[in-house]
Amino acid sequence: MKKCIVLANGKPPSKNVIRFLQSTGYNTIICADGGADTARKLGATPDYIIGDFDSVKEETLQFFRNKCEIIKIKRQNDTDVEKCLKFAFKKKFKEAVLLGAIGDRLDHSFCNMGIVIKFFDKIKVRIISDKSILTPYTGEVTISTVRDETISLYGFDEKTKISSSGLKYPLKQKSLPFGHKESTSNVAMSDRVELKIAGGIIFVIRDFNTLKKNDLI
In terms of C-beta density within 10 A (0-12 exposed, 13-18 middle, 19 or more buried), how is residue 193 classed? Predict the structure, then answer.
């Protein structure tokens, strides 16, 4: 299965996160515009740099000129992260992890979380930021967990119904409409949580280091 890292221009990940992902099959790095500056600072060489190049430093483009493929896309009806994901989908990548997707621009952070939903039917996209990993789900899902692990669930509208087994605070055909109700800091009661999600997509947010330590990524 083809998997890639999309490195955006928000808060930089650590070198260890990139190395870990590469060790688990995320062998291609696609930088979204100014994400290339982050890659350079981290000593990582991207395979592609994609964007309208309104934020990346010219010296960074020159540095990577003969080391990767640089693709300038001028259109303004999508973000640089979307450009990268469209490219990844076209190249038949099945999974992508967004790094640097959350930062000091709340609008950019919110937009990037929305992109996870926007591309749900095309490519599986997750976000790793600091200690957290965000994964979208729908349908019937079995999640491998660690007992007493904190798991938070978020929905977006009334029509999305969630039922669960294996959580301390069970959900029974519950909706978690954004701004009204959520299941923050729920707890896994065993090594498996089962979810049934009908009518939409939810976000499940977990501790990245817990998943890494227990080989759950």
Answer: buried
Q: Tens digits of per-residue pLDDT, 140-175? A: 999 999 999 999 999 999 999 999 999 999 999 999
Residues 6+ apart with CB under 8 A from 109: 10, 101, 102, 103
Query: What is the residue whose two structure tokens read 């095309």?
Result: 122
Residue 85 shares a structural domain with residue 153: no
Considering the domain architecture, whether residues 111 and 66 belong to the same structural domain is answered as yes
Boundary residue ending a domain (130, 163, 184)? 130
Answer whether 0.90 is exceeded by the pTM: yes
Query: 195 - beta bridge partners?
Result: 141, 164
Q: 40 is in which domain, residue-wise?
A: 3-130
User: So what's the pLDDT on residue 32?
Assistant: 98
Taking alpha carbons only, the member of 74, 40, 42, 78 closest to residue 57 is: 40
Q: Are residues 116 and 162 in the same domain?
A: no
Cβ neighbourhood burial of 125 (10 Å; 0-12, 13-18, 19+): buried
Q: Which of 130, 149, 172 is the last residue of a domain?
A: 130
Q: Does one domain contain both 21 and 94?
A: yes
Cα 19–Cα 36–Cα 133 angle in degrees, nearest 5 = 45
Q: What is the pLDDT of residues 33-86, one digit of tens each?
A: 999 999 999 999 999 999 999 999 999 999 999 999 999 998 888 999 999 999
Question: Do 126 and 135 meet the contact criterion of CB atoms below 8 Å apart?
Answer: yes
